[in-house]
Each structure stands twice: as C-alpha cells, then as structure tokens.
Amino acid sequence: MSARRRIWMPLVAVAMMAVAPGFAAAQAWSYKDAAKPYAGRSITILDEVTPLQEHMRTLVPEFEKATGIKVDYQLLNHFEVISKGQADMLSGRGAYDAVMLHSPQMGLLLDAGVIRAIDDLLGNKALTNPGLDRADFIEPAADSLTRFRGKTYGFLNWNYNVVYWARGDLFGHPEEKAAFKKKYGYDLAPARTLQQMRDIAEFFTRKKGEKLAGQTLDSDFYGIVMEGIKGGTTLWTVLNAFVKNFGGDIFDAEGKPTVNRPENVAAVKFWADLWKFSPPGQAEYSLIDVPTVMGNGIAAQTLAWSDFVLGIDQPGKSKLAGKFVYAGSPANAQGKKRSAETEPSGIVISKHSKQPEATYLFLQWMVDKSTQQMLFDRSGGAGVPIRTSTWALPSVKQSKFAPLYAAMQDSLRYGSAKPKAPKLFEIMDVLVGLVQEVGLGKKTAEQAMKEGQEKVQALCAKCTL
Amino acid sequence: MHPLTPGERAPLTLPSPHGREGGGGWFPYALIAPAMLTLVVVALVPFLYTVYLSLHEIRHAQVGDWAGLANYRTLLANPRFWHSAGISLLFIAIAVPLEFGLGLAGALVLNQGVRLRSLIIPVLFVPTMMAPVVVAILWKIMLAGSWGLLSYNLIERFGILTGTSVLASPSLALYALVLVDVWQWTPFMMLAFFAGLQSLPLTPYRAAAVDGASDLQAFRRLTLPLMAPLMAVIGLLRLIDAFKVFDTIFLLTGGGPGTATESTSLFVYKTVFDFWDLGPASATAVVIWIMFFVFANGFYQIARRKLGAF
Asked: Closest Cα of chain A to B59: distance in Å?
C-alpha cells in the first residue's frame, strides 16, 4: 500500500462520518445506555395472539437482558385485545402501558384522546435509535396508520394483508389449461384482475361426478371461497378488494357517508355474483375458515390473509402444501385506481401509562431492523414484513414462501389503514349484515346500499375525524 | 311427628334455638347476612350503577351530564332492539317447551327402570357440563356447510338444502341454534324431573292402583300435580337462562345471517363492546331487567297460588 493511500484513507473515513452523522451516532447509541434511567422498571404490553406474536414473545427476554426493563408481554385473542385494550384505555384504568390496536380502532381512541403521541419521544436523542430509519417502514401502511393531524401515534407493528391464493396443481394441469384457454381466450394463471378471478371461479365450479384435473369428483368442487360471515373482515375485504377497485368508497373526502354511490352498488353486485361459485356455507366462513377450506382442497382460489396462509401451506397441515400459487390482490380490469385489503396494526402508548419512555424503548425495539431480522430468523422465514428492507433479508428471499412474499409485497403497495371514524365498528356492523344478505340473495345490491346509506347517515352525518 | 301426606308441606325452618316459634331475634338475620351481603355487592350495587349510567350521557366510557330518559327513548326507538327482543322471545318460545316436553318424557322413561340406567344418567350430564364454547365448536363441526358431519352427511348428500347451509340460511339459522340449545339442556331437564319423580311418595300411587286408575290417569291426577312445584321452578330457571343465551349464538352465527339470530344478549354485547355506546346499553340492561322482573314476579305469584310452588 503506498504512503499516499495510507494518508488518504483516514481522511476519507473522517469525511464519510462527517457526511453521515447518523452513522457515528448509530454506532454510539445502544438500548443499554438509553434504558439506564429506566432499568428495573416494569411495563405491561397487550398484544394480539397469532404465530407472529408468539415468535416475538420468544425475543422479549433479549430486550429485558439488554435494558433491565421488565416486560409483561401479554397476548390475548383478537376479540379480547379489542375489548380489554379499549376498556383499559377508555376507562383510564391504565393497567397496560401500551395496547395493540387494529386500524379500525384508531378513530374511536383518537377521538377519546387516550393515545399518547410519540413525537416528543421520537425527537429525544437519548431515547431514539439514530438507526431507526422510519423511512424504511412499508408505506402507505405506516403513515396511514400512525400519522394523524401532524402527529405520530406509534409504529407499524403488524402488517396483515390479503393475497390471492390458488391451486397451482389445477392451474398447471394440461387439460385444464387447454380447456380454459379454449373457453376464455387467454392462459390460465393466477388472477391479476377481478374479472379473471370470476372467469376462474366459473371455470372450476364443478358438480360431483364431473372431472377435475383428470379425476372424477366424489363431491362438489367450488371455483372460489371467500369470507362471508357477519363480522370478521368480510366487509373490509368487500370494500378494499372490490369496492375501491371499482372507484367507490363508503365516505367522501369530507367523511360524509356515500354508501349508495353507483360504484359501490356495482362492486357489491360483482362480489355477490361470485357467491354462486362458492361453497354453500360461505355465509358462516370467517377469516379462519377460508384457509381451512382451501387447505381441505374443495375450492380453486380465494382471497385470504397471508398470515393464515403461512399456517396452511406447510407439510402436515394440508395435503396440498407446496402446490399453491399466489399473487397480489387482483385489480379491476376497468378500474383507474388499485386497492387491496390490508390491516396495518400498531401498538400505541396509553395516555394513562406511567412509563411512557420505557414503553417507547420497547416499542422501538420491536420494530428495530435487527429485531425484525431476528423475528424472521426465529420464525423460519414465516412472517409478515413491516420494513421494506425485510424483503431483502436472506431468510425472506430464500424462504420456501418466497412466492407468497412477492404476493404480499404487491398487495401491500395498495393497502392502507381504515378511515379514522369513531363509529366505525357500528358502521361496519350495519354494512356487513347488508352485504352478507346480498351475497345470500336476500337483498339486491341496490336495496342493501340504499338501506346502508340511510342507516349510516343516522349514525353520523360526518363520520371521519 | 307424623308421616307427611300428599299436599302437606314439610316445615321450611328448623326449630328456633331460642325456643320461640316465628321469632328468633337477630339469629336468622345473622345466618342469611353473608348471602345477602354478597348479593348486595355482586348484584345490587352493579345494577344500581347500571341504572345510574342509563340516566347519564356517556361518551368514550366517561360519564357526563344527566340525560334523564334520553337513553331509554333512543333505545325504544331503535328497531334493532325490538328485533333482537323478538328473536330472543321466539328462541325461548320454541326451545324451552321442547326441552320441557322432551325432558319430562325422558324422565318418565328413565323412571320406569330402564336397563343401563346407571350408565345412561352420567352420560346425560355430558352436554350440560360442557362449556358453551365447546358446544359451539362441536356444532360448528356438525353443521358447517359443505363439510359438516351432520349437515353434509345427513342433509346435503341427499340433495336437501343444497346451495345453502343451515347456519348460513336466514330462515333456518335460528332453528339450528334452538337445536343446539335443546341438545344441551334437555338432559338437564330430564335429570331434574327424574330426581323429582324419584322423590314422589308411593302411597298415593298404591291407592290409585287399588282404585283401578290407569297409568294415564295416575300421571294426570297424581304425577303432574305432585311435580308441578318442581316443574314451575325448573321451567322458570330455564326460561331465564334461555333468554340470556349468548355464547353459542356469538360463536356459531355472530347474530347473522343479517340480523336473523341477533338476540338481546348479543345486541347488548355489541352495543357495549363493539360500539362503546354505554348509555343505551345500560338502558337496555335496565329494560330487560324490568321485563324479567314483571314476568318472573307474575310467574312466581301464579306458581305459588295455583301450583303450591315456592
């Protein structure tokens, strides 16, 4: 190495550190140092129980070891997290320092003023990791969930999303491929549009005794299965995977109800038309039943929550494991704007927390790049990314679920948090019953949307915050 | 002491330790004080607080200004409340008489000294002892469309109800829930009635046999009158319990399809935990309590005067 190079190298290093001040700071900052004033304190966090959080729970001791902060990380089921978490925050009891919220809950709790904004904590250099890299969070999920009227309410913690999921073994069968091409004039492949999804549903709906992929069916086979229960996420899938792709929405830009607009009627009609290719019990199917039905092999395709798919497409869980294909949630062939159903969720600090700084450190650690990497490694490459950088992790790229991750990435580009409306659960309850009745053929889409408009207007003239 | 004859009642209390009939001073009160205190703390105080809440504005779980009867007006003008009350009444109107009739019939059969009775009786306890969530999961597996053990193998396979499923059908879902309730509670009624039958005195039956009474006459003239007080108590308890049914509906249909199975319990649950509309929810609780108080009191008076129950 020449003397000139030896002189220049330290200078270049110093210059680089000057240009990138965050680099040096990131090197110096540690959870251990940041947590020193809070070591020995205890915090209680309420989160939802799914396999994702169960993997996260195994990592929590790492945080406790690094910081000396004791974390009671409680996991409850979906309904209990909502009822118990909300009750705790609204009542002011303050048993939880932070509570997991699904995006539909944000409106009510922001309106009640019980979520603590974290902007002051983000601005605190002693508490905030310079390498946090908030620009790395997947958008529009993160911003639509956590930002409201110029303030930040937590991080994107969980990034549930709906993907298109189909039977690869059927799609690859030569006879089925040829018959499909002959009938519809294009190649059989995972649906990119809602219209293709309908064609596929129609094509694969077969009666007992007919042939499917060369085999005689001993029971009916269905072209599609969808969530149809009154409750769950039925309404949100109808709205975000269908209605918005048709250019509709249930509120206008000012938050006034627009349930009966023609685009909504057309989309609900399209969705309900798919019911004739679905299993008879679809009106009972929840977001848990849909993956089960797909795993049992009685339907050709669906729209399903990707975290549930991860639980089915595994050896031993379904005889069809490894034979599925995936794509992002389909677009409308005639639509101008694409939309997908996603459910960005976050853990927010309760206004009643007595330990906001220690809680903030834990929440920050949960979404830290290194924690996210550990989470994916620990789960064997089965997770749902919240960071853009996660897509490039070896545990994701080399995962057997790589095609599913590509589908997730596609869906997540077009999904946002739910509108921040204090009465959103009541609105959802009204509308889900109505769309279900359209699916069951008890009401026309026009009747249901007209009734929905009247009922939602009776609840709120301006529904969003 | 002489043996009791039919229609004669056993004394309800032990002789007073103070040796005074109808008196006892503070002692009887001391005996019931723990139970009364518990009742006041766990039932009366929350109920009075519910009444208080129902008369106030409540926003985001925070009690606001005095609202008078506004919450009651909102509730009574809500068609969904009346719909849910109708669903609950229809549910008990079908389920309870079925459970009552089948339970009594089963008890009479058991009372005939059927074979393997010692095996049958413990088995009959099983549905009643099951947690509602287990019952719901069990029946979900039985009635699920396309793959349910019962719905597919016994119904759809033979071309009945194709294109729908029992729990997904607005016209059938409520009857499916009635079926589940009947399955769970008929054995309880059967065992309660069987216990009652076992305790009936034999003397009147012997006298009736000497008089040449048929089995049907003995049942009508002896069994029913002697069993009436027990049947009144069990019937009332079952009516109250059936009106409160929640778990199985919540888990099997969520109140749907549409609002076809939304009972008042489910309506109250949603109003509180989904919509956080605590004012009207409290008013609903109070209205249901008043309805039941009036009904139960009427039932009590009739049962006491006409049947000698209570």
From this structure: 8
